[in-house]
Amino acid sequence: MGRRKNKGRNVSGVLLLDKPQGCSSNHILQKVKRLFGAAKAGHTGSLDPLATGMLPVCFGEATKISAFLLDSDKTYHLKCQLGVCTSTGDAEGEVIETMDASSISEQDVAAVLPEFIGDIEQVPPMYSALKHNGERLYKLARQGIEVERKSRPVTIYDIDFIDLSTDEQGRVILELKVSCSKGTYVRTLVEDIAKKLDSCSHITELRRLIVGPYDGDMMTIEQLTELAEQGEEALDASLQPIDSGVADWPDVHLSADAAFYVQQGQPVMVPQAPTHGWVRIYDQSHFLGLGEIQDDGMIAPRRMIKQCA
Fold it and tell me: Is the entire prediction scored with pTM above 0.70?
């Protein structure tokens, strides 16, 4: 049987989607892909259905940088309820433990937060997409099965205390802003903070504000729907350029000859280029893709971008 051809148009770029609450990342990705009529699209790191905010969606050739966004640092704004623990670590789970958190003060919180700054070890929650013997942990958790998980290193760059308050229902709500490395489970972080306060907790609100170099300029599904009514050109204007996802990487600009060879898959020598690591590659006017510095100092093409005719 022949392979099914991708239906849709070849649009490339990065959409900074403001994911709404209550749907999976994949569900909203498929909705956006249909709106754009795109042949190829992928997101860069799932958000839980409860969570909202920054979900970069890579279209077409931009999918070649999605792995780097997946590996990038993130910033979240969150609210958690102290004194109540749930099976999932968020408001969607069943309550499994309650404690009196009314005596916890701002000073108590301020005293424990510094203990979580820097390199820490986290045990991933059962309600996560990690796999155990080929099965997603959250699927096992739904069957009431708990398996041992190895702790893993993550980095917490900053935790900003925003507020500690008691709402109309008498719930003690802690509000924080967290900047962290890839692979950090914010649900686990707030549970661990609560333990240090001799309490327990679960996330009630979670919003991702920053992914790698992207901070702001998010589009809601409603805004995109309005743009779609104006046509493809209006939609495409909402996309960030492909190289924006690696904007903090060093760049090299090639002569016409060097650009020709690198696009044929051959390493090239570039005067004054960095001595190691990855670089953005440009000719005199276009972003060509990503390269890596070899031991001999030459730049080897790694993720090259197909140029539109």
Answer: yes
